[in-house]
Fold this sequence. Notes:
Radius of gyration: 50 Å
Largest sheet: 3 strands, antiparallel
Shape: elongated
Order of helices and strands: HHHHHHHHHEEEEEEE
Number of helices: 9
Number of domains: 3
Amino acid sequence: MGMTIELPKKVKFRGSHSSKFTNGYYIAFHDRMYDFIGGIDRARLHISDEVMAEWRRLIDMAMITGPKTNTVMLTQKLGTLDAQRVELVTYIFNVIRTQCGSRSLEIRDSAERLKVIVRRFRGLQARGREHKSSMICSMVSAFREKEADLKRLGIKVAVDDLEKVSREYDAAWLHRADARKLYTATYKVRPMMDEVYAFVLNKIAAAHAFAETEAERQSIEALVDEINQLVGDFRRSYNESIAQKRRARKKAESDADELDSDSTSLASSDVDSSENDSESDSLASGELNASAQMVDSSSSKLVAKGAEVSPSDGGYYDRPRERISPGDELYDESGEEMTSYGEGRDGPDATGGIP
């Protein structure tokens, strides 16, 4: 059994997926949609001026960057002043503790009196910033009661600087609190902007459902098509920007990997070449040593009769070398007597002779 009446077609809006957008894309999307909705006949869609004004206010609030910039600058200033306070406190504490071991009795007594105050504020540097401010104020007040001791130890100027820097910190903290009143973080504004945008789309869908004529329905459907087209343009632009960033990141990573691989290859080749050089040097050295040993073992020192024998190595040396003539009695290195010059035991020139 079919339906007896024909229901009007339901309009469908394309999802913007704006929750994934960066702040720049997000604000640009809402600004563009606001301009588009503001330029049509809103009376037939039942979109009031109050809704549009609230939408515009939220967009402007997200666009404001002046108070945010001031807040960031004041936050950096607070960090610098706090670091100066910690440095001064550490310096004062170190001087007092060091002078407790002074050879001068007066200086040592002054340091001991001030050390009593220091003990009460041990660990001050690690406290929170606001807690640190109150502790520094209390400590400076205690030091003021010991002006003579401060002057004797030479840290009165440091205490004065500490009080001055701490006051500057407190003033900057109050200034930042005032600047924050004019600034609302974008992550807090975005849900409210989404709520207004969804309300506007619901009004358009309701106007289409309650349209009395077909021409009015068709005009609203054409309006929905334009809205979907704008949404599609923003989604495509955002996806393209993300793809470009990914390509750039992958290219940078691949370049870094190539550089690492090239460096590894060069290092490996250097190690191989050094190993080959060392092996070559070892082989050459071994060959030279072997040759030297062969020469030493094959050669015999021939000296004339009467040469002295060294008691340390058993070798022979001349005193000086005498000229060897035919008929002289010769001895080899072992001390065995040889035949006369030019005649060996086994025949002429068996010993090789001496030229």
